[in-house]
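Journal club side-thread
Mid-discussion, someone asked how the predicted structure for our own chain would compare to the paper's figures. Pasting it here so we can look after the session.
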Amino acid sequence: MALSLNRPVAPDPYALLPQVPAFTLRSDDVTDGARLPDAATNTPRGDNVSPQLSWSGFPPETAAFAVSCFDPDAPGVAGWWHWTVLGVPADVTSLDRGAGRPDGHGLPSGAIQLRGDDGVPGYVGAAPPPGDQVHRYYFVVHALDTADLGLAADTPPGAASCALVFHTIARAVLVGTYQR
């Protein structure tokens, strides 16, 4: 008997959180609601390269930013964390393409990358199971009320996400999709 991945589409995970003001997130690589470029995937055609991101319109009292990429459509009950960056200084308003390298050298000083759900630090691109439904990849910039969340690089991304809820004063979201 073949395994079926048929299941309901997961809700927008950020619609389930306390609402905060929105600001603008743009990318030279990702178009909201459109398929991710192959370069941003962890597939045989992909390069596993984090997309360029830039943001504006956040509250002036922002103390720092966190950046994340989450797939709520991954099989399982908890989705899949592809990227989490903490401690991005408040005067930084963009990350270059490839900033999510595992060595962290593409990130601004003071920022740290957590290990994703695959167990490695840095950005891990989209790689939904072949034949599965379209997956959504939520690239999110969180404007924070503190520059130090008190989290270490070995903090699981789900735990960091919970901590972010209590310190996010505004949020910007850009959703890419991918299917194999």
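Post-session note: The CA atoms of residues 38 and 46 lie 5 Å apart.
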